[in-house]
From TrEMBL:
One GO MF term: transaminase activity
Residues found modified as N6-(pyridoxal phosphate)lysine: 190
InterPro entries recorded: DegT/StrS_aminotransferase, PyrdxlP-dep_Trfase, PyrdxlP-dep_Trfase_major, PyrdxlP-dep_Trfase_small
CDD domains tied to this protein: AHBA_syn (cd00616)
PANTHER family: DTDP-4-AMINO-4,6-DIDEOXYGALACTOSE TRANSAMINASE (PTHR30244:SF34), TRANSAMINASE (PTHR30244)
UniProt KW keywords: Aminotransferase, Pyridoxal phosphate, Transferase
Active site: 190
Similarity field: Belongs to the DegT/DnrJ/EryC1 family. L-glutamine:2-deoxy-scyllo-inosose/scyllo-inosose aminotransferase subfamily.
Cofactor(s) listed in the protein's UniProt record: pyridoxal 5'-phosphate
Protein known as: DegT/DnrJ/EryC1/StrS family aminotransferase
Biological process according to GO: polysaccharide biosynthetic process
Alphabetical list of Gene3D superfamilies matching this protein: Aspartate Aminotransferase, domain 1, Type I PLP-dependent aspartate aminotransferase-like (Major domain)
Transmembrane intervals: none
Length: 383
């Protein structure tokens, strides 16, 4: 492995959270309040997101994966059922589908946005299909209107995995506001973070059921039970799980939520700088943003054509080893992972994109000098 020559320059990670004194003060306030688990702050966080989406209800949970699991359980998706999903995504949705005893069915993506292709999803519908779980790749919402119509025409549940798209729109509709249920992630690298955390929003009947399932099947919160001193008066209506978001976490989430628009604006400025400075390099395809989209810019994904020994992997290695710059890959397709390998799965666009995709650093904590450093490094590699 070549040595990194510029020891004086610190490594620029692919991602770093932006946590300030506001988050620190809010957590301290929670720690001193005497109420640490899901309580007033988690409820305020839920209400803020619910209102922004115009959703009927919202439930703050321990992770996006927990939100997906609860969504599927609340919708009674189980053995014999199928859920259509892209393969160019994180494993959370397919894993949760399998955990419910159902089967994920992978459909191909479109060439431009790398989102699930509505025509491919339609072709994958069978009498067993119960839901379509779309994912807004990189923060560019999928064709929400097309998927809403497809779900309605076939009486399927539409789930939005909006882990990348807390602050993004398409045709005026906010990502997360169209599906029957939507899940968000507040994992450490996401557009806003609580370290670990997630949220489920959408139809009131389904979120209510998910809330019940996510609190052991107990039909009132610990906050209400203990706060109103009715500790003994609880019952378990259904065998549930424990997926609630604690207030320590929600304290961070609330303060991050207040910064979301600024964070997205900062990400958009970085994307714009990359667009202007990296355009025209041969074999380097920059992201295409559809006219009807307000992009959330969780990722800045480029495609690198394998030409004359330069591949996605050689570029990633050189950026890391020579220039001290971290990158990431989104994603290794799920149908290529050991648990999901199936020789019959044929997803040509997914394969083509997955072999070429590299995510450049794009986050609010980057300085203008950091952005320029990435641009200069890429130009050096293309010389
Ligand atoms: C598209 C997508 N969905 C779901 C998740 C899972 O999120 P969490 O770690 O909050 O469970 C991730 C996490 O990276 C993701 O990228």
């Amino acid at each position: 492995m070549p040595a990194r020559p510029v020891a004086a320059v610190p490594f620029l990670p692919w991602n770093r959270p932006s946590i300030g004194p506001e988050e620190e003060a809010e957590v301290l306030d929670t720690l001193r309040s005497g109420w640490l688990t899901h309580g007033p702050k988690a409820t305020r966080f839920e209400e803020a997101v619910r209102e922004a989406l115009g959703a009927q209800d919202a439930f703050a949970v321990s992770s996006c994966t927990a939100a997906v699991h609860l969504a599927l359980l609340a919708a009674r998706i189980g053995p014999g059922d199928e859920v259509i999903t892209p393969s160019l995504t994180f494993c959370a949705v397919p894993n949760a589908v399998v955990q419910c005893g159902a089967a994920p069915v992978f459909a191909d993506i479109d060439q431009v946005t790398f989102n699930l292709d509505p025509a491919a999803a339609e072709a994958a519908i069978t009498p067993r299909t119960k839901a379509i779980a779309v994912m807004h790749y990189a923060g560019q919402p999928c064709d929400l209107a097309a998927f809403r119509k497809l779900a309605d025409d076939h009486q399927l549940l539409l789930i939005e995995d909006a882990a990348h798209a807390l602050h993004a729109w398409r045709d005026g509709a906010r990502a997360g506001s169209v599906g029957d249920l939507t899940v968000f992630s507040f994992y450490a690298n996401k557009v806003i973070t609580c370290g670990e955390g997630g949220l489920l929003a959408g139809r009131g009947d389904l979120v209510e059921q998910a809330r019940l399932l996510g609190r052991h099947g107990i039909d009132s919160s610990a906050w209400r039970r203990h706060g109103e001193r009715r500790t003994a008066e609880y019952d378990v209506a259904v065998p549930g799980l424990k997926y609630t978001m604690p207030d320590i976490t929600a304290a961070v989430g609330l303060r991050q939520w207040a910064k979301l628009a600024d964070f997205t604006a900062a990400r958009a400025r970085i994307a714009d700088a990359y667009d202007r400075s990296l355009a025209g390099l041969p074999g380097l395809r920059l992201p295409t943003v559809l006219e009807e989209v307000r992009h959330g810019w969780f990722l800045y994904p480029v495609l690198i054509d394998p030409v004359r020994g330069r591949t996605r992997d050689t570029v990633a290695d050189a950026l890391r080893d020579v220039h001290g710059i971290g990158t990431s890959v989104h994603f290794k397709p799920v149908h290529r992972l050991a648990a999901y390998r199936n020789p019959e799965t044929y997803l040509p666009v997914t394969e083509q994109v997955a072999a070429r995709e590299l995510s450049l650093p794009c986050y609010p904590a980057m300085t203008a000098a950091d952005v320029q450093r990435v641009i200069d490094a890429v130009h050096t590699l293309w010389r």
